[in-house]
Specification:
This protein has 668 residues and is an alpha+beta fold. The protein is built from 18 helices and 23 strands. The longest helix is centred in the N-terminal third of the chain and has 51 residues. The relative contact order is 0.07.
């Protein structure tokens, strides 16, 4: 009997420690994931702010406090950011942090902004990001950028987005239940209740003494646990055992939530379902107790005769205890290995790599995990632009035949196409008729094909190879589904970065390179021209009579005119040349390898002819022209600033006559 008691105590104690460690490790991984996700979103908003301040008209309107002009310029930007990147807040503040304009809510302005992020930007004189708690009990990730000009502070530009989706994403990715509590001291009861009604969430201010339950993934809240947690906000992750709810047993980890001011404003409760594990442990304990009792009676009755056999039984029992403890340890290590792979995938997407580089590295991390029996072969597919087929984006160790046959795969074709069409995981442990793509010498194998989906939108398919006859495993399948969820986050992140990269370097109206690209190309042209001792021309263009069209027919007509004009100018130059829109109705050209003014003259005359031909804008004929200024390297300048300045000066001379061109050195 003593053996049963001692063994049971040892087994239970070991298992309890392992459960505590596993739940604590999972909570730490979730906390790290949430922080990483918010950091990434903050970096994306930083890129957006960098794009916004490139528009000199916006900076001028901010400096003058022109609300009408700011609203006109910022509204299309906000609509695009809202649609593509879920930006929900867009502000302009003056140098004293007095709000000039809420682009998302223009009727409200004039209040002083005292949020931690605004104060942090003021104090640091640089970009400041962090989460802020709103009156509705929801969190907003905010980034505030001070804007300087002429050596003085002109004001602030602020972007924000609601981050409730991050928690929902974590619920799906980690496979745990989540509850979010906020301290009442930071909320107004009436505002909070109104907000919960607006969000169509259940609410009860009186449910707890010090906190309110803002959101939950369970239909029923564990009141006993909430009352335990309600007493105080924790400093670090705190684990609670044996939370009973709806005949299920959970272990809980309480994760502290801090805002941009480092205030403890709430707690995120993670519930890990231990029911199945407890049932298995209970069965094992019963068997162990029965075995130990039997051994004890045998010892009592046959002590002298079977002492040697009893010692062997005890040794076997100890061995079983050790084996069970090692099994529990392997389970914990398996969970940690899986989480490391998922975190590695998220971290891979942080550096400035291309989408294909990120997906290739992520695929390596998935296929080389040692705890599952996946072959080191597989692929990741994107949904192609047509929305009806898959395009291979990354692969490992596939044959040349498959690289060609599966480069573009229609929905419904073969196993990956079937996963895309049905949006369901596809598994086969052998080659069959549904494995439509085959070739001579193909080796027997099986597949997992997992759709990559985000918020109901199909992004692609993950394809992993397994040995023929492979037994489908729930743990393996769960891991691959988590990988697909993580890939969805990675893909959306990189797509957002690519969109921002495009926006940061191209004019949003015409699609032409902007001023940033122009200066970069100009630096390259200077380096090449110096190396080969060649000349090139910088050409500055300004449309004649553009303002009259804009004022008479409206801004939409003016925008269409700029688009059509840029198309005509592009048709007058070579592929090696660069055309950029530098603002308003101004364009700049770099004409490579222009050995003498005659070459620039030919291009200028072609552009004059192209732009003099009337434009058809919304059914009305519009006639404009252009004034062109030309500077030649190295005669008219040996650096970027000088060449552009001199081409601009030549353009203003041409403007006196209109619809003509002038060289800076008065030739032509």
């Amino acid at each position: 009997m003593c053996v049963a008691v001692a063994g049971g105590f040892f087994l239970n104690s070991t298992e309890t420690r392992q459960k505590h460690h596993a739940v604590e490790q999972q909570a730490e991984a979730m906390e790290s994931h949430l922080l990483s996700s918010m950091q990434i979103k903050a970096e994306v908003m930083e890129a957006m702010l960098a794009f916004i301040i490139e528009d000199r008209r916006i900076i001028a309107a901010l400096e003058s406090g022109d609300r009408k002009q700011l609203l006109e310029l910022a509204t299309p930007i906000y609509e695009r950011f809202n649609q593509q990147n879920n930006i929900t807040h867009f502000y302009f503040h003056d140098g004293q942090r007095v709000n000039l304009l809420r682009v998302h809510k223009p009727e409200k302005y004039g209040d002083t902004i005292n949020r931690f992020t605004a104060l942090g930007a003021e104090k640091s004189g640089s970009l400041f990001s962090g989460i802020e708690l709103g009156p509705l009990g929801t969190f907003t990730l905010r980034s505030v950028l001070p804007v300087f000009g002429g050596g003085r502070l002109l004001g602030y530009i602020e972007l924000g987005q609601e981050i409730d989706g991050i928690i929902e994403e974590a619920h799906t990715m980690f496979g745990v239940e989540l509850l979010l509590l906020i301290a009442k001291q930071y909320l107004s009861q009436s505002d909070w209740e109104e907000g919960m009604r607006m969000l169509a969430r259940p609410f009860d201010w009186r449910l707890l003494t010090n906190m309110v339950l803002v959101s939950q993934s369970l239909e029923e809240a564990p009141i006993v646990l909430l009352n335990r947690v309600d007493s105080e906000l924790v400093e670090e992750i705190d684990v609670h055992r044996d939370v009973e709810l709806n005949d299920r047993n959970y272990w809980a980890a309480v994760i502290p939530i801090k805002d941009a001011g480092e205030r403890k404003v709430g707690s995120l409760i993670m519930l890990h379902d231990m029911t199945s594990l407890n049932q298995d442990s209970k069965t094992e304990m019963l068997w162990f107790a029965a075995l130990s009792t039997l051994i004890s009676w045998i010892i009592f009755l046959l002590f002298y005769r079977v002492l040697g056999n009893t010692e062997q039984e005890l040794s076997d029992a100890r061995a079983r205890l050790i084996e069970e403890g090692e099994a529990r340890t392997r389970q914990v290590e398996q969970a940690l290995n899986i989480q490391r792979v998922l975190d590695e995938m998220l971290n891979i997407s942080l550096p400035p790599l291309t989408m294909k580089e990120v997906l290739s590295k992520s695929l390596d991390a998935v296929l080389t995990i040692p705890i599952f029996t996946l072959q080191q072969k597989g692929a990741i597919f994107f949904v192609a632009e047509d929305g009806k087929s898959l395009e291979m984006a990354a692969q490992r160790n596939l044959s040349e035949v498959l690289l060609q046959s599966c480069a573009m795969l229609p929905f419904g074709k073969c196993l990956c196409g079937r996963a895309a069409a049905t949006r369901e995981l596809v598994f086969f442990d052998h080659l069959n008729a549904q494995h439509e793509i085959s070739y001579d010498g193909i080796e027997p194998h099986g597949h997992y094909c997992i759709p990559i989906i985000s918020e109901g939108r199909l992004l692609g398919v993950l394809n992993a190879y397994v040995d023929a006859g492979h037994v489908r495993e729930a743990a393996e399948e769960g891991f691959l589904k988590n990988v697909a969820n993580t890939l969805a986050v990675v893909i959306e992140r990189k797509q957002a970065e690519e969109k921002l990269e495009e926006m940061a370097h191209h004019d949003t109206l015409t699609g032409l390179p902007n001023r940033i690209v122009l200066y970069d190309r100009l630096d390259q042209s200077l380096a090449l021209a110096r190396r080969h001792r060649e000349s090139f021309a910088v050409v500055f263009l300004d449309l004649d009579h553009f303002k009259e069209v804009n004022d008479t027919l409206g801004h939409d007509a003016g925008d269409q005119l700029l688009i059509d004009a840029s198309t005509r100018i592009s048709g007058c130059i070579r592929e090696v040349d660069t055309l950029a829109r530098v603002g308003g109705d101004e364009f700049c050209l770099i004409l490579m390898d222009t050995r003498d003014p005659a070459g620039a003259t030919v291009v200028a005359e072609k552009i004059l002819k192209a732009l003099t031909t009337p434009f058809d804008i919304s059914g009305q004929s519009c006639q404009v022209g252009t004034s062109i200024g030309i500077a030649i390297f190295p005669a008219d300048g040996e650096d970027s600033e000088t060449l552009i300045k001199n081409a601009d000066a030549a353009m203003y001379r041409a403007k006196r006559q209109r619809n003509t061109y002038c060289f800076f050195n008065n030739k032509g």
